[in-house]
Amino acid sequence: MIKYLGSKRLLVPRIVALAQAVPGARTALDLFTGTTRVAQGLKAVGFHVTANDRATYSEVLARAYVELGARTAPDCRALLAHLDAVPARRGYFTRTFCEEARFFQPANGMRIDAMRAEIDVIAPRGPMRALLLTALLEAADRVDSTTGLQMAYLKGWSRRSARPLALRAPRLLAGTGTVRREGALELVSGAGTFDIAYLDPPYNQHSYFANYHIWETLVRGDAPEAYGIARKRTDCRVQKSAFNARTQAWDAMRTVVHGVRARHVLLSFSDEGFFTTQAIRALLAERFDEVAIVPVPARRYVGARIGIHNPRGERVGEVSHLQNTELLFVAGPDAAGIVERARAGEMAAAC
Ligand SMILES: C[S@@+](CC[C@H](N)C(=O)[O-])C[C@H]1O[C@@H](n2cnc3c(N)ncnc32)[C@H](O)[C@@H]1O
What we know:
With 351 residues, the chain is of the alpha/beta class. The chain is 40% helix and 15% strand. Bound molecules: S-adenosylmethionine (SAM).
């Protein structure tokens, strides 16, 4: 799975335990699915999941990991071997992200260029395309030279960037799900009715579209004009999320919380986000009779841990703290009981 700011990698077991503690729950909406980790966690325990995100790379991951079922999906191994053998060639990806910037070593960039073009030929649409694009995206992520964000690359090459790009077949889960790629505000009330909605919106000004512009370009396979040291797509300047703007984010949260058609809502937010815990609790309480909160200590993203650097890559300062608290809000009937049962379930599983 790709490195991703705000990915719920460590929280997935807890979120899944909460969802399982909701009596009779079978269907779930993951409205901001990102890497699809949470959607996968829910799918793995039997939920029918609808995964949504605005990002094109997230849609591809969801088509592989959420929509497709392990038993019914096509076998992509022969085509991965075919892609592996395609001769490397220098194209947009190499020029933009390996020469004008240094996100990948050129030898890997040229293989990415060649494989990406070949995918359009051998899998122009359908499930196979999602599998091949997912394999390429994940392979590229394993050889990048960043701290996990694409706003900047490392001053010196990361050790992993020297490894040759290697494709692996995505490990799919049993069962199937549903995928959407829409703005949350536009989709929320028309998405359908769910037992549980998991809401994990961006919590501050950092734009996912800009932070993961290379994945967006790789999956789209376009060749947009690029700007700045990070060679971002020019549409990063206009494609904004209301959740990233302090002046719009509260209204956006309200729209989602009031619009989502689910008996229970699980909402993730950070104590470093735009809103206080009390404000979010009050917002959920406008709609739900019961709200409970599970605070989870978390390590801050790797960029915070390696310090503050200037554009030349020199370390110029330290961040103030390395820990933050992820807040999991549970809203809906018997919220406190759900938290208790989830905790008991997690403890039993740990014994
Ligand atoms: C905190 S991340 C979600 C992380 C995800 N739970 C995971 O574990 O990978 C927030 C996500 O919201 C998406 N996003 C931002 N604005 C959006 C909008 N208006 N509608 C839908 N998705 C949006 C971003 O692309 C990003 O993937």
